[in-house]
Write a structure and sequence with these properties.
alpha/beta, FAD/NAD(P)-binding domain, 60s Ribosomal Protein L30, Chain: A, 6-stranded mixed beta sheet, 38 strands, 31% helix
């Protein structure tokens, strides 16, 4: 966190920071006991990495590191292409050390990683709320973390039990430790917590090593057993297993050995800090204070190493102040031989934690304080500093291109005569024995900083037109624009964006057979797609009939959401869910819609829902009614639209607003005309098939599929086509279930005034309905 902020305040020309993170919201362990006890919300104890990286201009890669290729200087990631680095800094934390307790992986809840623990803690809460009789809970681990955790769990469960009219006496708590409680603290601190545990009825088992657990008991060394219902393990963490395969120097416990400059003893281009690192010569316990204090030294040494200068040593303090919560709003202070306790210490800890978190949560303050200096062009005479040519002279050089394609490998491809395996001026594919070809093209600039995900989503988006026509995509050509830079950086960006595309295309059994690459100011990617289609399966935008139900397969709001993300205002949770939906294929949705009688269908993309539905209505000569309260939206987009966030394409789309037979507020207009990337399909389904179609879609993975309205008048002249907006009554709307309650989207509700004769808006260049629609242009 400090490195991101420090480099944002003092940018280094020619240096780009990339953050690789498994979780887009990262928890602060110092506030975990407060979250468990109910003193903080989860939002207060997490840092939103989508907002922080947008504010600090760092590239964000949502992925999990699983290894290193030090020879090639690449980080290996789970389920995606590796990513290259020049300098690497690791703070990957620890994993639960469960190997020494038989049955723990199956029956215990591990505290680390915290994100996973919090989801399991929700399950523990539900169990406690919905179960009568005794609740026996044990925590294994007598360090500060284990003690705080047990007392916080007790506080939360007793409070909720009392509020529900249950007896607190139904809860039994045990703390098990293989040494003395709080072994690393002074005797007065240990005595204070023994007293607190006794006062609160917690059974304390000191010097009692847990050797096995199952669903009913904890077995201690010597044969003694403790009866339990749930057990939490808060013992010392272990180094992530994959560090063993890096061939980096590690200490006896498997943690990365670093010197006083925080550089690996094996590789000066690799730095490490936090719990995953072990300071050689000056070992310190695994405490968050050392990770926090290492931040400024780490940032400065990364800056020095990037400039080719000698790094500076950092010597951490020998002792630190520990403020250990007692579960309620009180704490015990421990530093060396000193000890104090009371509610005032909890207030001190609260202020310290909130102030530290605010430095990374308040992105507006970060932006306000960022240096006005921008990255200056290189002045070293390198290729990156030269004036760049255009046209074919702006093509990516043969070296980076051939190396990126070699790393990409040859995709499996039936019917490819000439393709990436034997590249030439153009690709040659065999014509299908029967049927017809369907062709489409899509291209757009980057809207996220992760090139792999961009390629994956762009490919998925390009396939939608073929699926919406009822076709099967077979082959694709890519067009990639890569920002200018050194050959190695251009190669890496090209490889990443094409690897993401290949991941999508391979899943869809579409062969990437060639393409074109060029330099440009911004990263951009597009695809030409060729598919097969049977003449009797071609489905057009026209074909809607009065009485058809209108079905939408995915939520709306990507334009608004990513416009806000560019300004550090989109919540990580919303962005993560949206990206997952944007990566989800529409192939099965198209087949389901066809199975249930769809005669007209299109994908929702650049013109937004209202614009593309207008295309269908005009082509079919019908009007429709849409229920605003039935429109599924990505989480947070309704509030963002209300705050004024919108896509830059929205003003152009709003030229079509006289399609609406109603006056609506600006937020509603923004959502109806919001351009979608890799959006869902809207189709007309016979009323008799609509319920079954929705159930089929939802059980197949399209959890947000909804009936959003119905087709009304038939044989309407093109200039009279309208979309009426009306909230349907319960009797009008078919029942709609959602098998994925945890991802329930928000819904749009609008107060509408029907306007049968909408006036032309001032400055409007003629009625859009009197002009030809732009066909399949997106």
């Amino acid at each position: 966190m400090h490195v991101l902020r420090a480099f944002a305040m003092r940018p280094v020309p020619g240096v780009r920071l990339t953050l690789v993170a498994r979780d887009l919201e990262t928890p602060y362990s110092g506030m975990l006991p407060g979250v468990i006890a109910g003193h903080y919300t989860r939002e207060q104890a997490h840092i939103d990495l989508v907002k922080l990286t947008a504010a600090t201009k760092a590239r964000l890669i949502h992925g999990e590191a699983i290894g290193l290729d030090r020879g090639a200087k690449r980080v290996l990631l789970r389920d995606r292409a590796p990513i290259a680095y020049d300098l690497l800094s690791m703070d990957v934390g620890v994993t639960p050390a469960l190997d020494g307790i038989a049955g723990a992986p199956e029956h215990a809840i591990a505290v680390k990683p915290i994100g996973l623990f919090l989801s399991k803690f929700d399950g523990l809460l539900d169990w406690a709320r919905n179960r009568d009789g005794p609740h026996r809970i044990a925590v294994i681990g007598g360090g500060a973390g284990g003690v705080e955790l047990l007392l916080s769990i007790r506080t939360r469960l007793i409070k909720e039990a009392t509020a529900r009219g249950h007896r607190p006496a139904e809860f039994e708590f045990s703390l098990v430790t293989d040494e003395e409680i709080l072994e690393r603290h002074n005797p007065r601190v240990r005595s204070a917590f023994r007293r607190v545990l006794k006062e609160r009825g917690v059974a304390l088992f000191e010097r009692a090593c847990a050797v096995a657990v199952d669903c009913k008991r904890v077995e201690l060394r010597g044969g003694r057993c403790i009866t339990i219902d749930r057990v939490v393990v808060a013992t010392h963490g272990a180094a992530p297993n994959w560090l063993a395969g890096t061939d980096l120097d590690r200490d006896e416990a498997g943690f990365l050995s670093v010197g006083p400059t925080l550089q690996s003893l094996s590789d000066p281009d690799i730095f490490a800090a936090g719990d995953c690192a072990a300071l050689a010569g000056t070992p310190r316990e695994k405490a968050g204070v050392y990770a926090v204090r290492a931040g400024p030294a780490l940032a400065e040494n990364l800056r020095l190493r990037a400039a080719g200068r000698r790094c500076r040593p950092w010597r951490p303090q020998r002792r630190h102040l520990a403020l250990i919560s007692t579960g309620d709003r009180s704490a015990v202070a421990s530093r060396g031989a000193l000890k104090a306790e009371g509610a005032w210490l909890w207030r001190v800890k609260d202020r310290i934690d909130r102030r530290w978190m605010g430095a990374y949560q308040d992105v507006d303050r970060i932006v306000a304080r960022m240096s006005a200096r921008s990255l200056s062009p290189a002045r070293d005479g390198s290729a990156a500093s030269e004036m760049r040519c255009g046209g074919c002279a702006a093509k990516i050089g043969p070296g980076p291109l051939s190396r990126a394609l070699k790393r990409l490998g040859t995709p499996p491809a039936d019917g490819v005569i000439i393709g990436l395996g034997t590249p030439d001026d153009a690709a040659v594919v065999a014509m299908p024995d029967r049927g017809q070809l369907v062709l489409t093209v899509d291209f757009f600039r980057a809207f996220i900083s992760d090139p792999y995900r961009l390629g994956e989503i762009a490919a998925n988006h390009a396939l939608n037109d073929v699926y919406a026509m009822g076709g099967v995509p077979r082959h694709a050509l890519a067009t990639a624009v890569i920002p200018a830079g050194s050959a190695s950086k251009v190669e890496e960006d090209l490889y990443q964006v094409l690897s993401g595309a290949r991941a999508c295309l391979d899943r869809e059994h579409v062969a990437l057979v060639g393409g074109h690459s060029s330099e440009g100011a911004e990263l951009a990617i597009g695809f030409s797609v060729v598919g097969e289609i049977q003449p009797d399966r071609i489905i057009r935008k026209r074909g809607l009939k009065a009485g058809d139900c209108l079905v939408l397969t995915k939520p709306l709001g990507t334009g608004i959401l990513f416009a806000a993300a560019m300004r550090s205002k989109a919540p990580a949770r919303s962005v993560e869910k949206a990206l997952a939906q944007m990566r989800a294929s529409n192939a099965a949705a198209a087949e389901i819609l066809l199975t249930h009688g769809a005669k007209a269908m299109t994908d929702v993309s650049g013109f937004g829902l209202a614009g593309h539905l207008g295309e269908m209505l005009t082509a079919s000569g019908v009007s429709a009614v849409v229920d605003p309260s039935a429109l599924p939206l990505y989480e947070g987009t309704l509030d963002l639209a209300g705050s004024g966030f919108s896509s830059t394409l929205l003003p152009e789309n709003l030229a079509l607003r006289n399609l609406l037979e109603a006056d609506v507020d600006r937020a509603t207009l923004a959502l109806l005309f919001d351009p979608q990337t890799a959006g869902g399909f809207v189709a007309g389904i016979p009323r008799s098939e609509a319920d079954g179609c929705i159930r089929h879609l939802q059980t197949t993975g399209y959890a947000h599929a909804r009936i959003i309205g119905a087709v009304t008048e038939q044989d309407v002249p093109s200039h009279r086509v309208r979309i009426s907006l009306r909230r349907a009554s319960t009797s009008d709307r078919p029942p709609q279930t959602d098998p994925d309650a945890n991802q329930e989207p928000t819904f749009l509700t609008a107060a509408l005034r029907v306007n049968p004769s909408p006036k032309r808006h001032e400055g409007e260049r003629g009625s859009p309905l009197s002009r030809p629609w732009p066909g399949s242009l997106r």
